[in-house]
UniProtKB/TrEMBL annotation:
One of its GO terms (biological process) is sucrose catabolic process. InterPro entries: Glyco_hydro_32, Glyco_hydro_32_AS, Glyco_hydro_32_N, Glyco_hydro_beta-prop_sf. Residues 33-337 form the Glycosyl hydrolase family 32 N-terminal domain. Belongs to the glycosyl hydrolase 32 family. PROSITE patterns: GLYCOSYL_HYDROL_F32. It comes from the Eukaryota. The keyword Signal applies. GO terms for cellular component: extracellular region; fungal-type vacuole. This is beta-fructofuranosidase. Keywords: Glycoprotein, Glycosidase, Hydrolase, Signal.
Length: 418
């Protein structure tokens, strides 16, 4: 007869206590997804990493006066030391009129002071310039504002706008530095023309139209929140391709809003997709307006992003109070290359890995010796106010004082009662 000692080892990969701020106000508030203390939130904006302070910055579309979208619209602000726990900060950018909005945009670090906004008292790692859309009933124009205190307060450029198109549908500038040409590159949406325009600049103030990426993929009602970023391949991180992200709303295959992407090449002026296939960033309905960080802590990877964890189809009706909407977890992006039977065919897909920095609670050990495992052999663990991945491990130790003549394979069923 084979005698077994049974060890049930329960390892819970979650934090027993995340943050009092996130749990005290309402039981509906997520434990790790960022939510504003109060008011309405949508698109993430201006993502960047302060390498001097080791701090991550998240800005977002914010209406502090209500739990639904409405004007005036501001740039809210939050900071984090680990990309998981976020601290609300005061409003960063405000519109000039009550019938207007500081719409979506991005942040750059002007290390070399190409804009001329900074002197030597501002650390090059903190020379923040925000590029954003100023929306009024008459037009949408691209503005810039700069910060002298590391991204907490901003001064508006006196000669705004830096880019205008005599349109009410021209928005969401995403800017990055293109090293080969030593120029700033902007993507901006001509939303209802289904066009992503690509501009270049030497100083963030004067912009030249270089090309457009238009009428590709799912069109829906409009293009929004474009982004262009170089993403490393998973198989060989020294190699990379360029990815164009485009949001559409409405018109998602599952309804409402969603993000699509295209993989291709970029030469400093033109983005060319390898094929005309639209790929879906996330098949869930709550992932919109994805934006990537301008820069990162290299230990996390070079391509990180956050999306709005909601959908315009129902975002105004989510039953939370005194706040509405949350952000996705930060995701690390890479490109996965799969070779098919035809060696000339290469499928390249985006891989997204969530970043979740939380402390493990447990482990809890349940021990039973020389006994039959039945429903009576049960135990409980309090998982309240906890979030994360729950892992179960069942370990058998054979009592070697007895002869073992054969191995017995058995299926064990576990029930989790909530």
């Amino acid at each position: 007869m084979m005698l077994l000692q049974a060890f049930i080892f329960l390892l819970a990969g979650f934090a027993a206590k995340i943050s009092a701020l996130m749990t005290n106000e309402t039981s509906d508030r997520p434990l790790v997804h960022f939510t504003p203390n109060k008011g309405w939130m949508n698109d993430p904006n201006g993502l960047w990493y302060d390498a001097k302070e080791g701090k991550w910055h998240l800005y977002f579309q914010y209406n502090p006066n209500d739990t639904v979208w409405g004007l005036p619209l501001f740039w809210g602000h939050a900071t984090s030391n680990d990309l998981t726990h976020w601290q609300d900060e005061p409003v960063a950018i405000a519109p000039k009129r009550n019938d207007s909005g500081a719409y979506s945009g991005s942040m750059v670090i002007d290390h070399n002071n190409t804009s001329g906004f900074f002197n030597d008292t501002v650390d090059p790692r903190q020379r923040c310039v925000a590029i954003w859309t100023y929306n009024t009933p008459e037009s949408e124009e691209q503005y810039i504002s700069y910060s002298l205190d590391g991204g907490y307060t901003f001064t508006e450029y006196q000669k705004n706008p830096v880019l205008a198109a005599n349109s009410t549908q021209f928005r969401d500038p995403k800017v990055f530095w293109y090293e080969p040409s030593q120029k700033w590159i902007m993507t901006a949406a001509k939303s209802q023309d289904y066009k992503i325009e690509i501009y270049s600049s030497d100083d963030l103030k004067s912009w030249k139209l270089e090309s457009a990426f238009a009428n590709e993929g799912f069109l829906g009602y409009q293009y929004e929140c474009p982004g262009l970023i170089e993403v490393p391949t998973e198989q060989d991180p020294s190699k990379s391709h360029w990815v164009m992200f485009i949001s559409i709303n409405p018109g998602a295959p599952a309804g409402g809003s969603f993000n699509q992407y295209f993989v291709g090449s970029f030469n400093g002026t033109h983005f060319e997709a390898f094929d005309n296939q639209s790929r879906v960033v996330d098949f869930g309905k709550d992932y919109y307006a994805l934006q990537t960080f301008f820069n990162t802590d290299p230990t996390y990877g070079s391509a990180l992003g956050i999306a709005w964890a909601s959908n315009w189809e129902y975002s105004a009706f989510v039953p939370t109070n005194p706040w509405r909407s949350s952000m996705s977890l930060v995701r690390k992006f890479s490109l996965n290359t799969e070779y098919q039977a035809n060696p000339e065919t290469e499928l390249i897909n985006l891989k997204a890995e969530p970043i979740l920095n939380i402390s493990n609670a447990g482990p809890w050990l349940h021990f039973a010796s020389n006994s039959t495992l039945t429903k009576a052999n049960s135990f409980s663990v309090d998982l309240s106010n906890s979030t994360g991945t729950l892992e179960f491990e069942l370990v058998y130790a054979v009592n070697t004082t007895q002869s073992v003549s054969k191995s017995v394979f058995q299926t064990y069923l576990f029930g989790l009662k909530v």
